[in-house]
């Protein structure tokens, strides 16, 4: 594990979150410590269940567990969901996954000695402390692909652990436009106060906005390559060759259909969340630049907007915190190389998945 990056992954599955989980398991240079879940694409009950179902379907090592987290945002009365995109249960249309009460799904939840679920904050704190080992170990990259409530709680409640964190990486925000409102991207809109806490933390923070994720389109060619079990990248298929590939095909199909209906994406759905894992694994796939970013918390029309100081209006110092250019914003992606990475993970998972038994 010496040549790997220790990663904690916080998700709200969500079709694209599932692809992030798969990649975190199968990239050789990623050491996935645990998966916490949060309100977002659906309720916190379903995001936790879906994460556990994914860990089972993707044959994650048994020590990788799910830690359920915040059920609503820090300062707002209720959570916001996205059934029009992800279905009521967050993985609408996905076939082949076990039911929520199945033993294999329930076994994926972290539990204490009294058989009670261990929470996201508890799980993150324990994993980060143990991995850092008072400086004798390694720092952890904390990744968020949903609303950042759990991450903000970690930063606020345990500032002493920041020495043990290498970077915060999040999928969210947009430079100049949104996808939940004209101004706000969904993950940020769900908990803008939490997002401000995260971007103002004193460590390196990487923002992967929809400007970039909208270039990672799982088009018909990618979908056909996903369906085929051939190792020849030029070989494509319209029919999934295994149960795991049938599950992934149904995921891409449903997600693509809703993106076509809601956003008029004609080529296919964007795999937003998978880019967080791709960045930590290979930052060279991306180009980006540091900017000052703040989150609008009170605007009548702009709540949840990530306000990027493109022209350096605000005087900033060299720190990553509240007085500095606090985000490295990714601006471009080598799309073909990303999909090669993703499909290689699918190929590796296909050899291991219990869905194929």
From TrEMBL:
Q: Which family does it belong to?
A: Belongs to the IUNH family.
From the Swiss-Prot or TrEMBL record, what is one GO molecular function term? purine nucleosidase activity
Q: Which GO terms describe its cellular component?
A: cytosol
Stretches assigned to the Inosine/uridine-preferring nucleoside hydrolase domain:
7-340
Keyword terms of this UniProt record: Glycosidase, Hydrolase
Q: Which domain of life is it from?
A: Eukaryota
Name one process (GO BP) from the record.
purine nucleoside catabolic process
Q: What is this protein called?
A: Inosine/uridine-preferring nucleoside hydrolase domain-containing protein
């Amino acid at each position: 594990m010496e040549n790997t990056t220790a990663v904690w992954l916080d998700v709200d599955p969500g079709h694209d979150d599932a692809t992030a989980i798969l990649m975190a398991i199968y990239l050789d240079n990623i050491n996935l410590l645990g998966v916490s879940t949060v309100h977002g694409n659906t309720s916190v009950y379903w995001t936790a269940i879906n994460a556990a179902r994914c860990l089972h379907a993707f044959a994650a090592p048994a020590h990788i567990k799910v830690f359920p987290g915040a059920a609503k945002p820090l300062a707002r009365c209720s959570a916001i969901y996205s059934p029009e995109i992800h279905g009521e249960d967050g993985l609408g249309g996905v076939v082949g996954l076990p039911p929520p009460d199945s033993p294999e799904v329930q076994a994926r939840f972290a539990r204490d000695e009294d058989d009670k679920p261990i929470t996201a904050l508890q799980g993150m704190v324990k994993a980060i402390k143990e991995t850092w080992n008072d400086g004798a170990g390694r720092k952890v990259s904390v990744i968020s692909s949903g609303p950042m409530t759990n991450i903000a709680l970690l930063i606020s409640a345990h500032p002493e652990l920041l020495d043990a964190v290498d970077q915060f990486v999040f999928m969210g925000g947009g430079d100049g436009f949104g996808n939940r409102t004209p101004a706000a991207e969904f993950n940020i809109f769900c908990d803008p106060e939490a997002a401000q806490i995260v971007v103002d933390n004193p460590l390196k923070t990487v923002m992967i906005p929809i400007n970039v994720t909208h270039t990672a389109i799982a088009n018909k060619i990618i979908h056909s390559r996903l369906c085929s079990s051939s190792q020849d990248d030029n070989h494509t298929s319209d029919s999934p060759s295994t149960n795991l590939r049938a599950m992934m095909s149904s995921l891409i199909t449903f997600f693509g259909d809703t993106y076509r209906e809601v956003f008029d994406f004609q080529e296919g759905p964007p795999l937003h969340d998978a880019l967080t894992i791709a960045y930590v694994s290979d930052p060279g796939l991306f180009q980006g630049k540091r900017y000052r970013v703040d989150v609008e918390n009170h605007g009548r029309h702009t709540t949840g907007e990530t306000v990027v100081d493109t022209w350096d209006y605000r005087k900033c110092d060299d720190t990553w915190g509240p007085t500095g250019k606090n985000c490295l914003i990714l601006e471009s992606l080598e799309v073909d190389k990303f999909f090669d990475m993703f499909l290689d993970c699918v190929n590796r998972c296909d050899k291991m998945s219990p869905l194929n038994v």
